[in-house]
Write the structure tokens for this entry.
Amino acid sequence: MATAKASGPVLAALVRAGFRRFATYRQATVAGAFTNTVFGFVRCYVLLSLADAGGRVAGYDRAQLATFVFAGQGMIAVVNFWGPADFAERVRTGDIAADLLRPLDLMVGYLAADLGRACHAMLTRFVVPVLAGVLAFDFYLPEHAWTYPLYAVSLLLAVLVCGVCRYLVNLTAFWLLDIRGPRQVWVLASTVGCGLAFPLPLLPDAVAAALWLATPFPALMQAPLDVLVERGGTGHALVLIAGQLAWLAIVTGLARLVQRHALRRLVIQGG
């Protein structure tokens, strides 16, 4: 089994390949951007109706809610909770044996291609809902210039944490072959617990705290969106990014452990 580390040019080529792959799905990109935008209007009007009744919703004013919703709708495809299941399919068919002969770590290659996909989604699926929100609502623009790079870092961490989590789900194929069950559980749990359906501060404090401390889900959506709308200020944003870094380290360590056991199982079975 190959254990050599990939060089910079190899990783850059994988990122470009991931970008080109999703750039070929033009109709799917247009349809997805349109759907995310439409649901953005629905979600925004629901939350704004709550703001009309109480002035603010979970600490967000009307402009922050609009930004939260439409930026979140754009981030759906960037973070990508479901993702392609090509890796699991290669495990099921046995083609993963050829991947192990390449001088590239499986997880590194998976994440590099996923970053290319995220870059394409950022330029297409993210831009359309955000522009629609800017044109249709009073949009909250960060007051501090440093919020923009902080948001970029937070969004990158969200993509990486989600990518590693999806990689973990794909690794279950070494035992189950069919990952549809774990994949559905992951998609349901992550989309509900990440702040996509509603801002997590709407939940009871104990439930919200449990999600932040015991799961990586808030790091996927709630954290970067709170950074963007400057909820809690710069200090709070730095704490959120530190939490994302911690979760990235945790899920990466877990993925490494599971991958080691998965490859050992493959060798024992004669793979």
